[in-house]
């Protein structure tokens, strides 16, 4: 579904401080369209409407989240991830968000990124003094755990990620941040978002809408 919050290009990359800033202020719907779900089992699956994003590589098709005692795994199935993507577009201003595929663990269930919420993300920001180039998604993105600050989020730890075909998988291991890991439960509200901006056009998707 379409993302109706503030533009995700407001996320700013600071290479040393690793701070993610976003003026999130709008409310969102609660998750209602859930398929093959049993929160008590630790695994949930969600299906989104295909064809509602301007770019297939940000068009969500199916999402899964699995929580167990040692790791949290998020899987995003996109309509199509090409072997190569264009990064650091010439028209994009420095430090703005170029790509993002992420899941927000909405701990306070207010359906927006807010204080203490946790976010798993595979993303890419425009890096200064780096020319536009082509490359694969996995090798040219950051893979991280972020924590909401109330007016944005701060980088906490690196996570593992993989890309297989049209599927992105993110894994938050308990050892990465033990105290934060304990805040997420099988029934924790979750929001899935994707974003692309090349300095000229945006493409985005969100579930739930």
Q: Roughly how much helix do the residues carry, as a percent range? A: under 10%
Largest sheet: 7 strands, antiparallel
How large, in whole angstroms, is the Cα Rg? 16 Å
Which structural class best describes the helix and strand composition?
Answer: mainly beta
Give the domain tally. 1
Strand order of the largest sheet: 1-11-10-8-7-14-15
Number of strands: 15
End-to-end separation in angstroms reads: 5 Å
Percent strand: 35-45%
**SSE sequence, one letter per element:** EEEEEEEEEEEEEHEE
Principal-axis shape: globular
Structure description:
This protein has about 210 residues and is mostly beta strands. The protein has one domain (about 10-205). The protein has one helix at about 180; strands spanning about 20, 35-40, 45, 60-65, 70-80, 85, 95-105, 120-125, 135, 140-150, 150-160, 160-165, 165-175, 190-195, 200-205. The radius of gyration is 16 Å and the shape is globular.
What are the defining features of this structure?
2% helix; 209 residues; single chain; mainly beta; six-stranded antiparallel sheet; 15 strands; disordered N terminus; 1 helix; seven-stranded antiparallel sheet
């Amino acid at each position: 579904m379409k993302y109706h919050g503030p533009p995700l290009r407001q996320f700013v990359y600071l290479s040393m401080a690793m701070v993610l800033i976003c003026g999130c202020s709008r409310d969102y719907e609660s998750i209602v369209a859930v398929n093959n779900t049993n929160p008590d089992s630790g695994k949930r699956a969600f299906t989104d409407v295909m064809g509602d994003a301007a770019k297939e590589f940000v068009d969500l098709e199916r999402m899964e989240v699995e929580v167990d005692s040692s790791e949290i795994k998020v899987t995003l199935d996109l309509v199509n991830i090409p072997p190569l993507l264009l990064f650091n577009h010439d028209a994009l201003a420095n430090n703005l968000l170029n790509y993002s595929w992420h899941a927000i663990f909405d701990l306070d269930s207010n359906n927006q990124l807010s204080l203490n919420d946790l976010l798993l993300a595979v993303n890419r920001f425009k890096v200064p003094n780096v020319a536009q180039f082509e490359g694969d998604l996995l090798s040219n993105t950051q893979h991280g755990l972020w924590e909401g600050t109330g007016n944005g989020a701060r980088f906490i730890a690196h996570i593992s990620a993989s890309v297989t075909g049209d599927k992105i998988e993110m894994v938050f291991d308990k050892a990465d941040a033990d105290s934060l890991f304990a805040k997420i439960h099988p029934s924790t509200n979750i929001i899935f978002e994707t974003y692309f901006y090349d300095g000229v056009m945006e493409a985005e998707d969100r579930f739930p809408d």
